[in-house]
Amino acid sequence: MTESQSTNSNPEEGKLVISRTFNALRELVFKVWTESKHLKHWWGPKGMTIEVAKLDLRPGGIFHYCMRAPDGHEMWGKFVYQEIVAPEKIVFLNSFSDTEGNTIRPPFSSEFPLEVRNVVTFTELNGQTTLTLQGGPHNATAAEHEFFKGMFDSMQQGFGGTFDQLDAYLAKI
């Protein structure tokens, strides 16, 4: 069960910051972020199923996945891992992709950044883990930065749903 959740943005830096506390040990929360057998059960928007095409957990490695809606519509995405410090931190570039893993623009906007750099940290206190995600445009134009900031509310809702799924999954395993 979730103890607390906070969402806020840092408009000065243009980063989305979301923190959530889970009633699970840090090693377990880190594990479900780094293994395909777990990611497929909770990653992504509510209502979507996730197919893991590839997971290579190392700097330079990728997590390539397909998000499939109930109507069959597919969107592909990927992480390119930059840094992994088990069980404390994961740094990755997140983007939309094609089926081969090439970075592409998202289907909803030509102004959304091609890549978003995310830093996910895991801290444990009294058997609970606080996960903090900080994300912002990477190698983006001024217009892409502005568009990204304009999507904070939508992204907070999306990550809120994803973290709800993570919370439910952690309670089951």
From TrEMBL:
It holds the Pfam family AHSA1. InterPro entries: ASHA1/2-like_C, START-like_dom_sf. It comes from the Bacteria. Residues 24-170 form the Activator of Hsp90 ATPase homologue 1/2-like C-terminal domain. Coiled coil: none annotated. Belongs to the AHA1 family. This is SRPBCC domain-containing protein. It comes from Paenibacillus oenotherae.
